[in-house]
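Example S7 (C-alpha cells).
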C-alpha cells in the first residue's frame, strides 16, 4: 500500500484558542494506536501557526505531522501591507498551500501569481501544495516551473462540500483526471479534495493514481479527521 497524504485545510476558521483546543484533542486521539503511516499536513490560518508549532511536541512522534499555511505572498519582504512572505514563514511551516479555488475565485488569484508564489516558496525551502481544477492550470505550472515536483491537490470546485452539499466527485473520474495531471507533471504526487469524509476516503485512496486526500469541512473536528486517518490506516 502506498503512503497516503492527508491534508487538512481549515480555511478561514478557528481563532488561536480553537486551534490550541483542536491540537490538544487531536493529540489525545493520536495516542491510540493506528496504522496510518503516511503524511499529515495541517494547513491553518496564519494567526494559528505559532501556537500550533509550539504545541507540535504533543503529537505522538510516530505520526508524520507537518504544518502548512494556506497562502503566501507573491512578493518578497518589503512594503506590501498585509502580506505574509515566504521569508516570514520559512521557520514556521514546512508546506504552503497555493492557488486554492476559493483564492482563485474570491481573491482573483491568477496562474501568474501562483507561479510566482511557487518560485518564492522554493527559494525559501518551503514545499508546496498547488490546487488545480483544470489542465490549463497544470500546464501553466509545467511551463513556468518546469522542475516542479511537490504536491498537486486536484479539487473540482463543484465537489467542495459547501457547494456540493457533501457530494464528492466519482473516484473513477478523479483517478482519470489525476492520470492526466501526472502525464504533465510526472514527478508530482497528486491528491484529491472535495467532500472527503470518513465513509468515502477509502474509495479514493484505493484508486491507483490518487496519492491522498485534501479535507476541508471534515478536518475542523479532530474526531472526524482522525476517523479519516484511522480508515486509511485499516487499509494499509
Ligand atoms: P471540503 O473542502 O472537504 O469541505 O469539500 C475541501 C477543500 O476545499 O479543501
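Recovered sequence:
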Amino acid at each position: 500500500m502506498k503512503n497516503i497524504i492527508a491534508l487538512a485545510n481549515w480555511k478561514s476558521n478557528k481563532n488561536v484558542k480553537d486551534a490550541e483546543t483542536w491540537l490538544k484533542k487531536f493529540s489525545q486521539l493520536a495516542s491510540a494506536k493506528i496504522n496510518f503511516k503516511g503524511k499529515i499536513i495541517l494547513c491553518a490560518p496564519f494567526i494559528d501557526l505559532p501556537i500550533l508549532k509550539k504545541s507540535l511536541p504533543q503529537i505522538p512522534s510516530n505520526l508524520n505531522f507537518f504544518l502548512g499555511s494556506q497562502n503566501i505572498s507573491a512578493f518578497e519582504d518589503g512594503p506590501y501591507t498585509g502580506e505574509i512572505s515566504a521569508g516570514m514563514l520559512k521557520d514556521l511551516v514546512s508546506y504552503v498551500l497555493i492557488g486554492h479555488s476559493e483564492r482563485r475565485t474570491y481573491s482573483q488569484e491568477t496562474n501568474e501569481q501562483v507561479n510566482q508564489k511557487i518560485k518564492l516558496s522554493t527559494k525559501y525551502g518551503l514545499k508546496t501544495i498547488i490546487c488545480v481544477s483544470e489542465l490549463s492550470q497544470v500546464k501553466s505550472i509545467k511551463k513556468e516551473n518546469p522542475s516542479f515536483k511537490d504536491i498537486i491537490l486536484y479539487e473540482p470546485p463543484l465537489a467542495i462540500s459547501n457547494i456540493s452539499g457533501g457530494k464528492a466527485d466519482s473516484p473513477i473520474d478523479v483517478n482519470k483526471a489525476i492520470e492526466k495531471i501526472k502525464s504533465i507533471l510526472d514527478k508530482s504526487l497528486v491528491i484529491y479534495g472535495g467532500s472527503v469524509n470518513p465513509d468515502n476516503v477509502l474509495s479514493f485512496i484505493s484508486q491507483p493514481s490518487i496519492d491522498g486526500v485534501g479535507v476541508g469541512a471534515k478536518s475542523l473536528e479532530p474526531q472526524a479527521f482522525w476517523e479519516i486517518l484511522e480508515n486509511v490506516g485499516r487499509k494499509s
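Notes on this example. Residues 16-30 form the longest helix (15 residues).
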